[in-house]
Amino acid sequence: MLSHVFIGTNDPERATNFYRPIMEALGYPLKFIDQERGWAVWTSPGGARPYFLVGRPFDGEPALAGNGQMIALLAPSRAAVDEVYALAMSGGGRDDGPPGPRPQYHGDYYGAYFRDPDGCKLCVCRHDPD
């Protein structure tokens, strides 16, 4: 369904350093870094799309977080949700909902919500019981 997701940043180095341990914990390998464009790109295991990119906006304008926009990343376990949330908090992220069950979504949903250093909202979640 998706080709790629792009999250704008005003500081590509800071964003790469923020996302690198998070993506490692989720098992998404770094595909490449393009210093000239200010992009870092991760992919699904095996190199297939979709891609997850962070970088400077193409139009050269400042990156701004959108109200009501969120990227949700799948986690392989509830422990991975906890780990990613802790990495986000220690890496300069901002809490937007600590790890825990969210029965209002469905009985097995376990997720955490945070903002990256540029204010973009992310979720890391597990839909199946461990």
> Could you give a short account of the major beta sheet?
4 strands, mixed
pLDDT below 50 for ≥5 consecutive residues: which ranges?
none
Sketch the topology as an H/E string, one letter per element: EHEEEEHEEE
The value of Rg in angstroms is 14 Å
Q: Overall mean pLDDT score? A: 95
Task: Give the helices and strands, then pairings.
Layout: E1 4-8, H1 12-26, E2 30-34, E3 39-43, E4 51-55, E5 71-74, H2 78-90, E6 94-101, E7 110-115, E8 121-126
Parallel strand pairs: 1-4, 5-8
Antiparallel strand pairs: 2-3, 3-4, 6-7, 7-8
Helix pairs in contact: 1-2
Top keywords for this entry?
22% helix; four-stranded mixed sheet; alpha/beta; 8 strands; 130 residues
Report on the architecture of this protein.
- The chain is α/β, with parallel strands linked by helices.
- 22% of the residues lie in helices and 34% in strands.
- It contains 2 helices and 8 strands.
- It has helices spanning 12-26, 78-90; strands spanning 4-8, 30-34, 39-43, 51-55, 71-74, 94-101, 110-115, 121-126.
- The strands form 2 sheets. A 4-stranded mixed sheet has the order 1-4-3-2, with helices on one face. The protein has a 4-stranded mixed sheet with strand order 5-8-7-6, covered by helices on one side.
- Strand 3 and strand 4 (51-55) form a beta hairpin.
- Helix 1 packs antiparallel against helix 2.
- The chain starts with a strand and ends with a strand.
- The mean pLDDT is 95.
